[in-house]
Amino acid sequence: MARAQARTGAAFAAPTVTITSSPASPTTSTKATVAFVAKDANKVKCSLDGASFVSCTSPVTYTGLAIGGHSFVVKAIRDGLSATASAGWQIVAEQPPPTGFSVGSSITNGATLAGSLVWDARPSVPVSKVDFYIDGALRWTENFAPYVFNGDGNVLDTRTLTDGSHVLKLVATATDGTRAELSATVQVANGAPPPPPPSTASAGHVQFMVKTDGSMLGFIDNSTAAQQQWMRDHWQRAVVDGQGYWDSKLSWYPNAWAYKNSYAIYKNSSLASEHPDWILRDANKNKLYIPWGCSGGSCPQYAADIGNPAWRQYYIDGCKALIAKGYKGIFADDVDMDINVGDGSGKQVAPIDPRTGAPMSDAAWKSYFATFMEQLRAAIPTAEITHNAVWFTGGGQHDGTQPEIVRQIKAADYYNMERGFNDSGLTGGTGVWSVFAVMRFIDNVHAYGRHVILQSYANDQALAEYNLAGYFLISDGRDYVSTIIGSLPSNWWSGYGTDLGDATSGRYLWNGVWRRDFTRGFVLLNEPGASTKTLALGGTFKNRAGTFVSSVTLGAARGAVLSS
């Protein structure tokens, strides 16, 4: 699944839309769910089988469909511009399984499981796919032999399950659409849950980062001494303009990270005129851009040559000057470890590497960026450095283990993850785009001794609580959370003041949702695409609205933060 790079700032690009999941074909199910990601759109409309377009949100589900072919079209619209994506599938009548059609499993009924192990399926006839279910929830689909849970070479980590009884089920679909199933009831016995990650602060305490913008300037510029104290108390860190606006405010708010784009040369700046040799070019020597905000054949930011020693030194000197003024650290934007360079229309273009005269390779780009960030780290060793980077860079399992990406992560203190758990491209299960994969990536960042920021764009408290629940699931006590709503005194959300105390467990699956326990409460998270669940809590707990409850109902992509 292709996905666009994450971007900060205002968006002026044409809308895009990508279908991220659609029904298998053929299928015997008369229910269909299609998920998609629309960007830079203010309207999204869907059409099934040629019907009129109607407003829709992802995922969209249709039921009671007839046997035969079906087609789905989604359209993203903004200011007269539109983009479409489509999917099709065939519903066939369910047939009795062919004689002798069965599926075997490497895990047998009644087995006791611990640690990590291979779970594979062994169908007796050619199949189009095998679905792997755990406790009734689909966790993985494999379309090619060998049919291994989590993909070839990977394993089932039973430590993500609670100790006790679980049902593992295989559903194999033959090439003619018929199915064979096999279930095994197993016992998971890993002993006590793993201890909480080591931390210098409570993993159940919120550390809030605010990303300041123009809407806050009136409050900031006219703040009283009491309001300045409020900012120090509530904004543990703030990302601020790095062009001088905040210089006069460092005396009363020193915990500021100065924003500085890692490879942007602004089109109309004197720097672009003075150093055209620092700008990447295509094979025809045309200047190339960071493909964001493009319009009329041009984009606001030229793409700097991150392999050019002079550009690196210019950038590093600018960062050193900011730290010398008293800024707590640098917020380095667009640390894009996948090549992200385009022409004036925003179309991706491979730049010419000035050192070789040939198109720049992905390996060279990654090496240049990792080295650049390591040089920045060496130049300001005591300052806090944050990389704003996409977590899924590098492809593969999206787990942050590729050597150059490890170098990049280790060259910073914090890894800013735009959209956080509210990223609409995330799924349930354990695939490479899943919430599970995000948490696995964060675990690896922690293993390198670094920390993350979950910078959500949630626009209501339900979405903000979902992201906050995700934050508590992964927190090592030094991570940060950030959301665009509720960050000023006039609308401060009480959820950011939550203190659940120390973690008493790592995260684990509980009644089909993710859970983590603390000395003063616990959190629950229901994955994207999951069924709505009503959960008895085994006691009375206070939710973020201040109400005491003994049960909660969580829809897909919803969370609950509950204190005792």
Key features of this structure:
five-stranded mixed sheet; eight-stranded parallel sheet; disordered N terminus; 564 residues; alpha/beta; 16% helix; Immunoglobulin-like; 8 helices
Structure description:
Among the domains are: 16-91, Immunoglobulin-like (Sandwich); 103-188, Immunoglobulin-like (Sandwich). With 564 residues, it is an alpha/beta fold. It is built from eight helices and 33 strands. It starts with 15 loop residues before the first strand and ends with a strand. α4 runs parallel beside α5 (362-379) and α5 packs parallel to α6 (403-410).
* CATH architecture annotation name of the domain at 103-188: Sandwich
- Approximately how much beta-strand content do the residues carry? 25-35%
Uncertain segments: 1-11, 192-200
Number of strands: 33
CATH class (first level) name of the domain at 103-188: Mainly Beta
Helix content: 10-25%
| Order of the strands making up the biggest sheet | 18-19-20-23-24-25-26-27
Number of helices: 8
The name of the CATH superfamily of the domain at 103-188 reads Immunoglobulins
The N- to C-terminal Cα distance equals 42 Å
The biggest beta sheet is recorded as:
8 strands, parallel
Mean pLDDT: 90
What is the fold-level CATH name, i.e. the topology of the domain at 103-188? Immunoglobulin-like
Secondary-structure content class: alpha/beta
